[in-house]
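pasting for ref
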Amino acid sequence: MAGGGVAALGVKKERAAEYKGRMTLAVGMACLVAAVGGAIFGYDIGISGTSRTPAHLTSCDRRRHQHDLRASGSAQWEQNTRKALSMSCSGDLTAPNVAGGVTSMDPFLKKFFPVVFRKKNDDGQNNYCKYDNQGLSAFTSSLYLAGLVSSLVASPVTRNYGRRASIVCGGLSFLAGATLNAAAVNLVMLILGRILLGVGIGFGNQAVPLYLSEMAPAHLRGALNMMFQLATTLGIFTANMINYGTQHIKPWGWRLSLGLAAAPALLMTVGGLLLPETPNSLIERGRVEEGRRVLERIRGTADVDAEFTDMAEASELANSIEHPFRNILEPRNRPQLVMAVCMPAFQILTGINSILFYAPVLFQSMGFGGSASLYSSVLTGAVLFSSTIISISTVDRLGRRKLLISGGIQMIICQVIVAVILGVKFGTDKELTKSYSIAVVVVICLFVLAFGWSWGPLGWTVPSEIFPLETRSAGQSITVAVNLFFTFVIAQAFLSLLCAFKFGIFLFFAGWITVMTVFVHVFLPETKGVPIEEMVLLWRKHWFWKKVMPDLPLEDGWAADDDDGNSHHK
């Protein structure tokens, strides 16, 4: 029945009203430990500088690089930025830079990328060419590519051996990668360590959101799932602060930055060994009685018949599917597949990197000098963390759609305002005054706030909760692969886009946010409070997706949904 014959299999009716249970200490502790996977993801992209510096340029070099590129394009833009570049770069060649990561540390470059190090200190070298190095590119891209491939490999592991198995694999791989990087004596060791980090991220990002969604009770699933994003923001912030401190420890500060990644990796590995497996996975793998015992323990009640029945019915269909990746392409899984591709892609296309890219420049124009990157990191990190807390506290009351749409509208407005200020004021005053810089920083904070309560966490949450059991692991693998792919593409293309669009890059991303906001309004049904194993029934109620999905033959005694999306007994 792998091809798609589903008669009398799968969840057949809604039982959400019959679900019992409460938030228990077991669930809270399990979700807290599992969410460390998010901290690992955040720490790694922060420690290497990829969270903000796609081309691995120091803050001053980045702005000079932009100046060099723009000089070859618009003479007006060159005139408008000359004074700002002079102000922000003069005397600041060695200023502390939290955003640059270890790739901005001279001892690191001198040891592994001596050619880049020499070019960096050659005043006569074109700034664009300073970082044109295949080894440095391999160091950057290896994480994303390894994560992309390993997320797909993780799917059968997660399905056949459980969510905990993938979490432990991710932790061990990340532990090995961090150790190799910290002890690296040549480029081969460094890139191999980076690949292992990517493998760890692929396994962790594939399994952790699934684990959180399956362990959480339906009425709290959104909040508990967002622990992953909250941990990611903390990881990035922690990495930035560690980089700021270790860059002063010469010549081995970079080893400390890279090696400290082993701490959350160890916690994730040990936690994965001690965590209970999700009842969904246990039942799917035939350990039915154990699955029920775990379900009773994490719900705090023995009255779990309705939820257990949904899991048992879902596992019937899951066990009949031999090839999840082939099955996920069938029409009846089309809505979930579209979401698995669009949600992570849209999350990256919000332009969050473009906003964070400009923050240090604006802080320097406000008089913070060499500490601009530090203040920028602290402020944006604090805003992102607090907005994720807002999302956690409201997502299961207001719903996913309201947060995504309201956040999208606010981000559009902020992007347009920043574009107008940069375009108009640079066109008249040649530079931003302190008052306009403050205004732009406030708008940037409002943008980060909106991102943090909407697309930041929900870009992970929604895909992890919408797939039926038989394709859940495959679907999450696609989500992670798409996210890493678009992160890689934007990281590689960002400076070229910046050169081509100039301040119009903010309008470019505002256009994408408009598209994704309309997409959510039209195509995403509200998943708030819907049990994860009954999510398959939700799509048959949606005005559009019920037209796309084929009629589902059910067991005798049940009719397909009517026009209102309700199932009826014959």
